[in-house]
Amino acid sequence: MRKTLPVAQRVLGASSEVKIRILRSYAKALFEDGDATLDDLCEAVTKLEDAERTARRVMGGEHPLAARIEHNLRMARAVLRAREASTGSA
Hints:
By secondary structure, the protein is mainly alpha-helical. It is built from four helices and no strands. It has one domain (4-87).
């Protein structure tokens, strides 16, 4: 997915729904991985923040995809906070 994201953005545009969906899937794969590093979790949060901003701007805040991204962002932040607390990196 790291290779697919730039291609999707170049071909489809930064505001494409497909690009937003790829970004969400990539971030989910990162934060749902039990072996994810703190850097992976931070990257997941950053990618979801980007996806949420873009989805809200392009589709509106009430769009189902925007709502799912917002939910994923809350989950990713919670996973990151828990990992930081367990490693003393907060």
